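An instance noted here:
***
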Amino acid sequence: MSAPLLGCIEAGGTKFVLGVARGPDSVLRTGRIPTTTPDETIAAAIAFFADAAEAEGPFDAIGIASFGPVELDRTAPGWGHITQTPKAHWSGADIAGPFARAFACPIGFDTDVNGAILAEFLWGAAKGCDVATYVTIGTGIGGGLLIDGRPVHGARHPEMGHFLPRRHPDDTEFAGCCPFHGDCLEGLASGPAIMARWGASLSDLPADHPGHAIIAGYLAQLVIAQRALLSPRRIILGGGVMGTPGLIDRVRAQAEQLGGGYFEGADIDRLVVAPGLGDQAGLLGALALAQGAG
């Protein structure tokens, strides 16, 4: 008897990454489509899965790991929807419903970062960790939290990108680019915030540019906040900005300095790590959600 056929959707603000799989080591096909309007993007994704279903048979479940914020309370009328987002056209968009109606199968639905930390717990850098976080630093900043193998939801879901850091002394002129908070972490350290200040991505700035220390300092503050509030065994930092050479080492060093020797007993190189699953963490997160959807 073959393993269940699962659809996987990493729903990002820039692109939707799609997959059809029977397990993490059995991905049958993948695809990607640009994130335009909800109607256009979701219709293209449904067409991809409909074509796969003709070849492989009906889906047993579909997992959706989505950019947010999203409604995760299954008892709420808006479950499976994007809530209030700065992404044009997507506030209030129903993500889960169209796939449930099109394929008549269970839908696993969570944030992209909650999906990623679940995948890292099952197959990657957070194996064996009772408390772990995954933070993506890219077009936005989002964080997922896992405790005892379960992603945390609560009243909403973690919003680590909207943590309010201390301003770096060399970064007092920039107001921040978050439309809700200005100089929250996302407003200061995301890809668009870096571009708005310096006209280039962090990886394209010269090695001696002060931007490297400034961004590392903000991310180090998040590391310290997580250590103080959550006591994680693993903090995984992913996303496009983290592809900047040397950035993770700068974050570790500044986190150690900010910690002032208080957080002893943890090797910072083992605590703060890159994704074990690389750029597959998001899609495998959707697979993990599909596996748990039945």
Q: What stands out?
A: The chain is about 35% helix and 20% strand. The CA atoms of residues 15 and 229 lie 33 Å apart.
